[in-house]
Write a structure and sequence with these properties.
Strand content: under 5%
Largest sheet: none
Distance between the termini: 27 Å
Number of helices: 12
Order of helices and strands: HHHHHHHHHHHH
Structural class: mainly alpha
Shape: globular
């Protein structure tokens, strides 16, 4: 893939497969397709500092998710961060938000820094900082709005927030802004280190640890999640449709 339209075609294929298999990987794929469409429209409108470069970044960024998905389907080795997210998609007890954040965790905390560095291969990384922040702004606005409107697919999710108040709970406190800052720092480390494989393996280990906290938030919150989960829609395809609608409405405002 070298063009953003090719990325959208691939995402369409993945979403179609997730619908037919009732795979919860489709939750993240739905949101990510909306983000990719928004970036494409922004490129066409000349919104970014360097629009051709933004297309390169978007393609490299998306390719890491698409390649991970396709390799996982074919039982090939992938990063632990993505493996945990994909394996968790088989579990009917996880909340929709857990599935979304597992995908976002792997994609931003690990993939984004790598994609930014690869986009600027042989160049100064700092030159892409403005567009890096812009794509993160789009992601942040989308995720925050989806979290705010999660009641459309998880009617009693709001119960979790006051009950978990004061706890160091990643599921409720996951921040795109914090993830973005960490991703930029990692991009700088990855960019200057000749041992790219070591950088990926070391970072992946840390991000996989965060994924495990999202999957197993502890006994107390785990019990509450089971209760909240009973009220969530059980149809994967209907949930995907609702997420798609919420995402589309949000991105119209950005």
């Amino acid at each position: 893939m070298t063009k953003i339209e090719e990325v959208l075609e691939k995402l369409d294929q993945i979403i179609s497969e997730c619908r037919s298999k009732q795979s919860r990987i489709g939750y993240f794929a739905i949101l990510y397709r909306q983000v990719t469409r928004r970036v494409r429209d922004g490129i066409l409108a000349g919104e970014f500092e360097d629009n051709p470069r933004m297309e390169v970044l978007d393609v490299l960024f998306a390719k890491r998710f698409i390649d991970a998905y396709e390799d996982w389907v074919q039982s090939q080795a992938i990063t632990e961060s993505w493996r945990l997210a994909f394996e968790a998609s088989k579990n009917t007890n996880h909340l929709v938000l857990q599935h979304l954040l597992l995908g976002i965790n792997a994609h931003i905390n690990l993939d984004l820094g790598i994609a930014a560095s690869e986009t600027m291969k042989g160049k100064e990384l700092q030159a892409i900082k403005s567009d890096f922040d812009q794509i993160n702004f789009i992601l942040s606005e989308l995720v925050d709005d989806v979290k705010a409107n999660i009641s459309k697919v998880s009617p009693i999710f709001g119960w979790l927030i006051p009950l978990a108040k004061g706890r160091d709970e990643m599921l409720l406190n996951f921040s795109i802004q914090i993830a973005r800052d960490g991703a930029w720092k990692y991009a700088g480390e990855y960019h200057i280190d000749p041992n790219k494989n070591y950088q990926i393996q070391n970072r992946d280990k840390n991000i996989a640890a965060l994924a495990k906290k999202l999957i197993n938030p502890g006994k107390f919150l785990g019990f509450l999640i089971k209760i909240v989960g009973f009220a969530e829609w059980k149809s994967v395809s209907k949930t995907m449709d609702q997420l798609d609608q919420v995402a589309a409405e949000t991105l119209k405002k950005i």
